[in-house]
Amino acid sequence: MPRVIHFELSADDPERAVKFYDEVFGWKTQKWDGPQSYWLLTTGEAGQPGINGGLMKRSDNPLPPSSAINTIDVPSVDEYAESVTKHGGKVRMPKGAVPGIGYIAYCEDTEGNIFGIMQFDPSAK
After folding, report:
1. Residue 85 to residue 109: CA distance in whole angstroms
2. Alpha carbon of 63 to those of 7, 42, 108, 115: distances in Å?
3. Which of 14, 15, 55, 108 lies 20 to 30 A from 41 at CA?
4. Total Cβ atoms within 10 A of residue 39
5. DSSP alpha helices (H): ranges in the chain?
6. Distance between CA 61 and CA 8 in Å, rounded?
7. How many CA atoms lie within 13 A of 113 on its CB side?
8. pTM, whole model, 2 decimals?
9. What's the mean pLDDT when you consider all of the chain?
10. Are the C-beta atoms of 116 and 72 separated by less than 8 Å?
11. What does the pLDDT average to over 68-91?
């Protein structure tokens, strides 16, 4: 069964936001070494319940503003994107590669909520 595996936040000033979450919650942050400005948020220790997330500059996010975007692990982005549209949702950002991680697409449910669907594939380029 697909589960939520990641969340994303957007911020006008990512460095200010990273500092806020670090100081308030003690989250560990690390700037991602990928092709986009993106910060990885580690929210706890291995074995603890919960998920980790990421933070991006709001102006770099092509999706409508949202408090948070949850990403769901799926075996096939293509199949689940098709299912989203079949059941009344929309694909807001089509499938794209996250190099070395896998493939992701962003969708909207029937109520206007944005979420991601992620297919792990380390060979993604």
Report:
1. 9
2. 14, 23, 10, 10
3. 108
4. 20
5. 14-25, 77-86
6. 10
7. 10
8. 0.79
9. 91
10. yes
11. 95
Across 56-85, b (16+ Cβ under 10 Å) vs e yields bbeeebebeebeebbbebbeebeebbeebe
> Quick check: 107 pLDDT over 70?
yes
Question: What is the DSSP code string of 39-53?
Answer: EEEE-S-TTSSS--E
Q: What is the mean pLDDT of residues 80-109?
A: 95
| Residue 35 confidence (pLDDT) above 90 | no
Cα–Cα distance, 103 to 11 (Å, whole number): 23
CA dist 97 and 13 (Å) reads 25
Phi, psi angles (nearest 5°) of residue 58: -55, -40
Has residue 123 got a pLDDT over 90? yes
pLDDT of residue 66: 66
To the nearest 10°, the Cα dihedral for 55, 57, 63, 68? 30
Q: Categorize the per-residue pLDDT at 71 as very low, low, confident or very high, splitting at 50, 70 and 90.
A: very high
- Give me the torsion for CA of 74, 79, 82, 83, rounded to 10°: -60
Ordered structural domains, the chain, with CATH = 4-120 (3.10.180.10)
